[in-house]
């Protein structure tokens, strides 16, 4: 997490510079704007960015067999968006392809040993959910 809005999903290349805190698709929490990535082409721009914020709290790269079409997809957990975001990674490109509204802040996501996706909701009343294919 960085500024207000403008959360990024970057393809990391050793030695490259992604611009933070010089450029971002967000603004400072004080409201002071930060120049957008396209104003400074010497910095690598993110593959995906979110305005408004999803407030990412981490992610996994799915490798399981339970959801074969999702293998090698990233699952980003969203605090503010209260969602699980699926990101398809194809070569050196990435795209948000699906967002699962969970109605609770998502604190954790993990892949289980048999390929189920486990999601932990945040705060009082949060649940531990085991996601499996619909039958």
User: Nearest-angstrom radius of gyration?
Assistant: 16 Å
Order of helices and strands: EEEEEEEEE
SS summary, helix count: 0
- Trace the largest sheet across and list its strands: 3-4-5-6
Q: Which structural class is indicated by helix and strand composition?
A: mainly beta
The N- to C-terminal Cα distance equals 37 Å
Q: Percent of residues in beta strands?
A: 35-45%
What is the 3D form? globular
Task: Please provide a written account of the structure.
This protein has strands at 7-9, 48-50, 56-61, 74-78, 83-90, 93-101, 106-111, 117-121, 128-131. The chain is mainly beta and 135 residues long. The chain has 2 domains: 1-52, no CATH class; 54-135, no CATH class. It has a 4-stranded antiparallel β-sheet, with no helix packed on it. A 3-stranded antiparallel β-sheet has the order 7-8-9, with no helix packed on it. A two-stranded antiparallel sheet has the order 1-2. The N and C termini lie far apart (37 Å).
What are the SSEs and their pairings?
Blueprint: E1 7-9, E2 48-50, E3 56-61, E4 74-78, E5 83-90, E6 93-101, E7 106-111, E8 117-121, E9 128-131
Antiparallel strand pairs: 1-2, 3-4, 4-5, 5-6, 7-8, 8-9
Descriptive labels:
mainly beta, 135 residues, 4-stranded antiparallel β-sheet
The gist of it:
This protein has 135 residues and is an all-beta fold. The protein has strands at 7-9, 48-50, 56-61, 74-78, 83-90, 93-101, 106-111, 117-121, 128-131. Strands 3-4-5-6 form a four-stranded antiparallel β-sheet, with no helix packed on it. The protein has a three-stranded antiparallel β-sheet with strand order 7-8-9, with no helix packed on it.
């Amino acid at each position: 997490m960085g500024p207000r809005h403008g959360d990024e999903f970057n393809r990391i290349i050793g030695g490259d510079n992604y611009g933070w805190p010089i450029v971002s698709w967000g603004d400072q929490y004080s409201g002071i704007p930060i120049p957008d990535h396209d104003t400074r082409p010497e910095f690598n721009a993110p593959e995906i960015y979110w305005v408004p914020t999803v407030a990412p709290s981490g992610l996994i790269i799915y490798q399981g067999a339970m959801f074969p079409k999702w293998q090698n997809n990233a699952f980003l957990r969203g605090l503010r968006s209260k969602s699980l975001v699926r990101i398809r990674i194809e070569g050196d490109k990435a795209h948000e392809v699906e967002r699962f509204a969970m109605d609770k802040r998502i604190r954790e996501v993990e892949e289980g040993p048999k390929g189920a996706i486990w999601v932990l909701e945040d705060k009082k009343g949060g649940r531990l959910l085991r996601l499996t294919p619909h039958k």
